[in-house]
Amino acid sequence: MAIEVLPATDYQDVRTMVGPKRDPNGNVCWCLSYRVSPKENQALTRTARGRKVQALLRAGEPIGALGYDDGEVVGWAGLAPRAQTSFATSRRIPHVDDLDAWSVWCIRVRPGHRGEGIAHQMLAGAVRIAREAGAPAIEGYPVDNDGEQVDLTMAYVGTRALFEAAGFAKAADTTSRLDGFPRVVMRLDLR
Predict the structure, then answer these.
(1) Using CA of residue 54, residue 60, residue 66, residue 70, what is the dihedral sign?
(2) pTM over 0.90
């Protein structure tokens, strides 16, 4: 299945992918955990998180990419210039160099559409969007799980194998761990 990957601009589609599923006041991530400072992330709760997403969208700030299958939203990738994320000041995930790299930190596929290669297409679309925006490089911070099963709720960061399949190369180790696995910096030069 081929999908169309576009910069996230539609609030309802972003909400479908990363907002609350049942309770509109639910306290869910909205994929803001890495997009805003840790202090702001702690302060934003419940509906304030959705309002923050709306404000970023209104301001034209990059927050991610959405994948569509015949007009239906089926995928998400959290994506923005690293300088606009908490990775800019992270002590656990190092900077490889001083390039103004973009970060892709979350890849989600809508239930009912998993196992169709959408995660690979979302990552390829994120690369294309970053390249078109003039990014000199793009990086992700997936788990290095060596083929072991990753808990589905923690798999949002992707795996080293997913990033390698998209042409990324390991650029650095980190001191960050997720679901018991080390995370690595995977980098793709876009120049």
Answers:
(1) positive
(2) yes
